[in-house]
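Weekly structure sync, notes
Attendees: PL (lead), two postdocs, one rotation student
Agenda item 3: pending single-chain targets
PL asked that the sequence for the first pending target be pasted directly into the notes so everyone works from the same version. It is reproduced below exactly as submitted, 451 residues in total.
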Amino acid sequence: MFKYLSLSCILLATISATSSWAAPKGPKVGRVKYAVDPALKSTGSCAADAAWSGVRNGADFRQMDCFKTGDGGSIVLRLNSLDDNSILTIPENSIVNINEFVEKSDDGFIVKTDIKKGYMGFKAEKNKGHEIEFRTGTAAASIRGTEGVIGGDGDKTMFGGLKNGKLAIFDVASGDSISITEGQTVIGKGSFAVLKLKSSGEMGFAKMLQQIISDASLSLDDLIAAATKADSAFQEVQASAPAASQAPVQNQEKEQVRLTVPQIKYASYDSLRCVANVVVSDVQKGTEARLSAVMDGTPISEVGVKRNMSKRVALRSGIHEYEFVVENEAGQNSVKKTLGCYPMKPFTVKVLGDKHVFLPVPPPPPNFEDVITQTLQFQIRVPENDPIVLNKVVVRQNGKVILQERLSQIQNLDYQIPVELKRNHKNRFDIEVIHKSGYAVKATKVYEVGR
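Predicted structure, written out during the meeting:
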């Protein structure tokens, strides 16, 4: 499941050269939790000829510091102080600049970073009010209380993935934006593609993605295929990892109950009220699952579910493909349905010309057939300007049906119907149009033929 969105070449707001981003030494941002060589740091520049020095565990780092890692190197940065677990992880062969640090009035902070090369992991405490902003050569992103990875390959390609939370990616040049949620990965190359992958947000999987996007010959569709294949490969490796790598809980009394995957079942829907009803089951006591609705590949809603229950989900106007997903840390289940939503909206039927027309037509010469023809014209004006919202169109002449169309038979909103009239008679045409909501409109036209 994925979607596309237009992506411009440069996606970050312009920063003035005289702003605090250029300060030679800024405020303290945090401390180095630990570093694995080769791991280097410089101040004020990420250039190759900058004054680089080794990164020390426990050392402070500040605004405008730049970090660089080589093969096998890594750096973990704890943000702001030691009072929470908000961290940035810089893996091997990456260069990251800490551009700006801003303290907020609510004790939170904003950290702005620039990924010059490679990728990085992030984790921000949900309840601390912290925000982290990223930019790569092709994208700008912002998080608040989430965990995942983001990276890129210069001005060509970017990717991001989430274990949990939400990630907003912005295109300042065009005004477009896109958001991904837990378990999703976005790849950008000319446009964005959003994929639902089991490995989204994992650092090991991010390393595979970084290698994939570095191949400039691959199109976006090629990248999607390669990322999907890599996801399967990464999951196979994880599944075959030695059981010893899964450390047992030392205190058995504190061991968490093993989660089971919740279930979901589609029940019914109301096209007039625009709601669908689903049933969520197998939600364990004391746990919470997430119920989300995805319309045509785009997430439109998400709520928490703490018990087995029926849930009403709002739909959008028109016909769309919906996927209703229930998930927790153990996994997810989903059900797909194509549903129509037709809220009641007034509309009109406009009959062209006068409603009552008198036609003085002389009789035909002898031996000629007396046939009098006219064209009945009317227009259906619905707010959606789309015949898909109509259920039935019926035209009667003096009580007899001469035209009847239903559902997919209705292909337009403008009608021109040839009709035959009777002489010395009021020829009455009754038009009835019924919306899928049940709302009906009637109109009438009379042709009277005389000598």
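Discussion points:
- Residues 16 and 84 are 32 Å apart (CA to CA).
- The domain at 257-341 is CATH 2.60.40.10 (Immunoglobulin-like).
Action: rotation student to compare against the earlier draft before next sync.
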